[in-house]
Design brief:
- By secondary structure, the chain is of the alpha+beta class.
- About 55% of the residues lie in helices and about 10% in strands.
- It has 18 helices and 7 strands.
- It has helices at about 10-20, 25-35, 50-65, 70-75, 85-90, 95-105, 130-135, 140-155, 175-180, 200, 210-225, 235-245, 255-260, 265-275, 280-295, 300-305, 315-325, 330-340, and strands spanning about 5-10, 45-50, 115-120, 125-130, 165-170, 185-190, 190-195.
- Strands 3-4-7-5-6 form a 5-stranded mixed β-sheet, with helices on one face. A two-stranded antiparallel ribbon has the order 1-2.
- Strand 5, helix 9 and strand 6 (about 185-190) form a beta-alpha-beta unit.
- The chain is globular and about 70 Å long.
Length: about 350
């Protein structure tokens, strides 16, 4: 079985396209060259194939020849654009703690994110591994470095200045524009992109910190991270897609295929090879999640039904009776008696 395509949150290409349109670029041209669709850019929390964002960056680079466009995109990114990762960062104790969340949960933003923190090199550093392809395109790696600095400033103070930045660069040896942008010394290096912070800034407290909310958000982010699919287990891939999208309503087969970055026909073929169907995977997933949710009495039956994508509780009641031979409230009461 082939592995699934690397994916990213749609928030990233949405932000890139928005800045491109503001700069006067031709949106139809960029959509065509990247194979992106308006539907894929309609919801920041859905996931799309990582390759489509790469194609978008390439199209911008080849059509418009603006060497530092990626910096402008990264500068504009807001904490809320990072979804659950941004929210848990914003309620962390210090900037350093917030950056550790980016290191821990970065895979929720993009399958190819490789962020590490180095506290042993004289000053705190956030390191981003960069593939040759990202370096060659230039814009995405510039964007990612700018995002690190932008969100650090949003978490602490707008005038925060890194101690030093290293940029992996193949296409130019001129770091002056980068130095002007980041307001610090910028060096050109190898495959690593590095943002070095002052110790005082790293330990700077975050004013919006909320320990209780942080604990809840961390737990939810950990839950999503643990549900990320293995590289070749199709059922796990579909279950991960469902865990991210089911609360908005039951996604169709085409929506799941788009989320996984494959065609509907390919998804159907792989499901057949796995001797299952999308309907069966969806039904099994709902059943497992229902039993889990019902064990927590803080959730009402209606809330459980909504989380499982049922527009009306009656649909959930019918499904649950088919699964367990009784209504969900009776099942919950029986399990509570057994625990006494």
């Amino acid at each position: 079985m082939t592995s699934h395509a690397l994916t990213i949150r749609a928030a990233a290409p949405i932000r890139v396209m928005s800045k491109a349109v503001q700069a006067g670029f031709d949106q139809k041209l960029l959509l065509s060259r990247s194979n992106l669709t308006a539907a894929e850019l309609s919801n920041p929390d859905t996931r799309i194939p990582r390759e489509k964002l790469s194609r978008l960056w390439i199209a911008i680079d080849e059509e418009y020849h603006q060497p530092y466009f990626g910096l402008e995109v990264g500068k504009s990114v807001l904490l809320q654009d990072l979804g659950i990762v941004g929210y848990t960062m914003s309620h962390s104790e210090t900037l350093g703690h917030a950056m550790s969340k980016l290191e821990r949960f970065g895979k929720l933003l993009s399958d190819d994110v490789a962020i590490s923190i180095d506290l042993e090199s004289g000053a705190p550093q956030v390191r981003l591994e960069a593939s040759i392809k990202l370096i060659a395109i230039r814009h995405p790696i510039h964007c990612r470095i700018a995002i690190i600095v932008a969100i650090a400033r949003q978490l602490t103070t707008p005038d925060l200045t890194p101690r030093r930045i290293q940029v992996p660069e193949l296409l130019t040896k001129d770091a002056d524009a980068l130095s002007d942008f980041f307001q610090c010394n910028v060096t050109l290096g190898d495959h690593l992109a590095i943002v070095v912070f002052e110790e005082a800034d790293w330990n700077r407290p975050i004013e919006r910190r909320d320990p209780k909310l942080e604990t809840y958000l961390d737990a939810y982010a950990e839950h999503l991270l643990n549900k990320r699919p293995s590289s070749d287990n199709l059922v796990e891939q579909i279950e991960f897609a469902l865990s991210s999208n089911l609360a908005a309503g039951e996604p169709g087969l085409s929506a799941i295929a788009s989320y996984l970055g494959i065609s509907v026909r390919s998804l159907q073929r792989r499901l057949t090879a796995a001797q299952t169907s999308y309907k069966q995977v969806l039904d099994d997933f709902r059943r497992t999640q229902a039993l889990d949710f019902l064990s927590d009495r803080r959730h009402t039956i209606q809330e459980v039904a909504s989380m499982l994508g049922y527009h009306e509780p009656s649909g959930f009641y019918r499904a649950f009776h088919r699964w367990m031979g009784c209504p969900p409230n009776q099942y919950r009461d029986q399990k509570a008696k057994e625990r006494r």
